[in-house]
Amino acid sequence: MTLLIRIFLFLICLNCFSYPLKKDYFFQINNDSIKSDFHKTKEFFIEKQWDSTLVYSHKSILTKHINQQKLDSLHFMRGYSFMRKKLFNEAILEYNLVSENFPEYSKILLNLGGIALEQNKYKKAISYYLKFESLAKKQNPKYYKSVESSFIHDLGLSYFHLSEFTNAEKYLLKSHSIQNQKQDTSVLIRTSTDLGNLYYEQYKDNLAIPYFLKAYNLAKNFHNLNLKMNTALNMAVVEENRKDFQKAIFYRKKFEIWKDSINDQNKVWEIASLEKKHAIAEKQKEIQLLELENQIKNSEKNKLILISILLLIVLTTILIFYIQKSKINKIISIQKEALNKSNNTKDKLLSVLSHDLRTSVNTLQEENSKLLENLNEKNYQIVKEIALKNSAISSSTYSLLDNLLHWISLQNDQLYFHIDSVDLYSVTKQIEYYYTPFFTNKNISFENLIPKANFIYADLDSLKIILRNLLDNALKFTNTYGKITIKTYSSENDNFQYLVIEDSGVGISEEKIDQLLKDTNSLQKKGNQKGIGTGLGIQLCKSMTKKNQGIFKIESVENEGTKMIVGFKKVKNG
After folding, report:
1. What string of DSSP letters covers 518-550?
2. What does the angle CA 434 – CA 355 – CA 469 come to, to the nearest 5 degrees?
């Protein structure tokens, strides 16, 4: 039952903010002769670039003599952007600054209801939804009709969490009926699942199971792999509770197949993107080569004409050609040396990767054999432990391949870097949201001490890659019930803001720190690493920090913990 409710909560997160956002959501873009900060804010908002929307809306709010209508629009856009970035408290603050005279105020009530539902404040969510229903029917009936089934569905979920099952059943059935008429398969799958959970919570299995089965049958012929995966997991839990383990295993297998399909799909897109960039680069090289050949032919023709006119010019031409040839030979020699160095790095990388990947695959094969044996013997506790271990191995392998893709792109200068002012607090909050389940699973205490409005100069995408790799390392080398802290400090001696990821893990020796910080592209295993690893993550962090004109340092004491320190240039106030 506990697992089923967890799945149910996951589905809520998918559905809370599914209300439509159209280009004419509450205003039209003006054809201003000069693009003001307000105009840029609207453009970024419609393009769903939430970070840029927040930056330019803040600048626009500081503009003098701004009217109330524009001010309401700016606070609305900021509230919606924070909501899409899962920063709900900030979104609530912005929405509360919008006046009730705002033409689309009913949509704010709907969004506040969704936030309250996400934060498990169910009575508050119901209050907002009922206010929305009353206002939207008068203010914007067309919009109310377009979101009616989703809104009624979320209202039913709120009553369900308050154990007011009669009201929950009333609204969920009404939402289900509307979705049946509209033939909205994706929403119908979620609502059927929610009705199943409602009856299952009341031990009305005879009513619950048909809805779970309906959701599964709809999802298995639907294109959304996440829905397929969740409905299969629901059916597996149902069959396990009914002690029909053969069916439970069938649904578990379906769940794993669709889960693997999602992972494979992501990898295919990444590889295809990389191949496309490589093909473009090769084509550009061919064009440059053809241009160079044409230049050489024209040069030779000119030389022949000059030779026929004057011997002195011939001698001068020969001398010039000799000098050019020497330069070309020197360039070729430098390129050859760089190519040999690159090949050595590639060979070492392939050697280490093949060893680690072979180790992980062999381990998975051995563990899968044990898994089948224990399944046959019905040792489900051991099966669970093996499955968790296999999941950890798969996750480590995926991280290794992800780092490899970034490493190859970086070595080929295929990563686009744009250094700009970045709010470190917002970025770390996003990363923290992603890693929270991993900290919880390992019982690790995580503390984010980054102050708000802490701006640095950095490329946003590479900053996220650096943070993820350093948190991966901290998580990997911190024992259960350990602690990880992320904080900042600055020095009066330089213009850098230092980001510190500190853990209470196994630590690193001074010798190994010197090797890791050495200015080289070579890759090697870290001495204290127990699982898969090439040192690729640290090398990637070093290279990307250098690209960001930053500083990378490591401080550690063995068996006491490690501090990974990355310095970025500060954004000066004023």
Report:
1. SS-------TT--SS--SHHHHHHHHHHHHTT-
2. 20
Q: How far apart are CA 352 and CA 533, in angstroms?
A: 8
pLDDT classification of 388: cutoffs 50, 70, 90: low
Q: What is the DSSP string of 16-50?
A: TT-----TTSS------SS--HHHHHHHHHHTT-H
With a cut of 70, say whether residue 163 has pLDDT above it: yes
Distances in Å between the Cα of 373 and the Cα atoms of 244, 378, 383 are: 19, 9, 9
What is the reported pTM?
0.42
Which token pair is 257? Answer: 């197949």
Q: Does the CA dihedral 146-15-115-175 come out positive or negative?
A: positive
The residue behind tokens 């792109």 is 409
Contact 505, 530 (CB under 8 A): no
pLDDT digits (tens, 9 = 90+) for 193-212: 888 888 888 888 888 888 88
d(CA 540, CA 409): 11
Between CA 36 and CA 46, with CA 42 as vertex, the angle to 5 degrees is: 150
Res 75: pLDDT:
92
Q: Which has the closest alpha carbon to 61: 26, 109, 25, 94?
A: 94
Pick the CATH number of 419-569 from 3.30.565.10, 3.40.50.1360, 3.90.700.10, 3.30.750.24: 3.30.565.10
